[in-house]
Amino acid sequence: MVLSRALGLAITSGSILLFIPQILKIFNAKSAKGISLFSQILALLGAASTAAYSFSKGFVFSQWGDSFFVGIQLMIVVMQILYYSDASAYAFAFFAFCWAFTFAIIGSYIPIEVLITVQALGIPITFVSKSIQAWQNYKYQSTGQLSLVSVFLQFAGTVARVFTSIQDTGDLLLIVSFGTASFLNAIIFAQFFIYWDEKKRKKMH
After folding, report:
1. Are 184 and 157 in contact (CB under 8 A)?
2. 11 and 88 share a domain?
3. Dihedral-angle region of residue 185 (phi above 0 means left; psi in -120 to 50 means alpha; beta otherwise)
4. What is the end-to-end Cα distance of the chain in Å, rounded?
5. What single-letter DSSP state applies at residue 85?
6. Same-domain pairing of 10 and 104
7. In this structure, is the dihedral angle defined by the CA atoms of residues 72, 67, 111 and 115, taken in order, positive or negative?
8. Domain span at residue 38?
9. Which one of 24, 62, 150, 169 is separated from 159 by 20 to 30 angstroms, measured CA to CA?
10. DSSP result, 115-169
């Protein structure tokens, strides 16, 4: 239990600054060019659903705090993408929607059945997005511009979350969600080493 809580707090603490460099980079450039709005919204949906579901189930904050902080940062990124585009007027409307959603969760206005459904949908979304990346790596026999450190941190974080979910909640939906993510992150992480020699060989030629 002590290890689980310590891991949960460590993951939560680390998540506070996870997207700050990205936010500052967009702010300094006054542009979000090259960043997919759709992918950021999907990521926000995943983080927000996990935080909302866990809060509604009464789980300890160390179990879902990282999803909460990541959700806030992704909301800012989405707002920046909208603000620095032709759809700047929608940035504040999006903020208002997120604010209303937060109060709806706190006030228990959204049925738990809806939150369970949204949380369950995160499993196939994660599977598809990670599988596409793994297939692309296999197709080109390379991990391209993927960051080894970022992929490792994602892998380590999801593995740790499987442990804390089992220890702190025993919730099958969360365990399967993080278990699926950790399995696919493990495949992508392993591909760095599988294609390492191939990458060196291409550089030599």
Report:
1. no
2. yes
3. alpha
4. 53
5. S
6. yes
7. positive
8. 1-110
9. 24
10. HHHHHHHHHHHHHHHHHHHHHHHHHHTS-TT--HHHHHHHHHHHHHHHHHHHHHT
Residue 5 contacts by C-beta under 8 Å, 6 or more apart in sequence? 60, 62, 168
Which amino acid, residue 126?
T
Does this model's pTM top 0.70? My answer is yes
Tally Cβ neighbours within 10 Å of residue 58.
Answer: 7
Q: What type of residue is 35? A: I
**Other Cβ atoms within 10 Å of 102 Cβ, number:** 18
Give the model confidence (pLDDT) of 158-178 as tens digits: 888 898 888 888 889 889 988
Task: Give Cα 84 distance to the centre of its chain.
Answer: 23
Is residue 191 within 8 Å of residue 138, measured between CB atoms?
yes
pLDDT tens digits, one per residue of 75-86: 998 999 999 988
Round to whole Å and give the CA distance between 62 and 127. Answer: 25
Q: Which two tokens stand for residue 48?
A: 């927000």
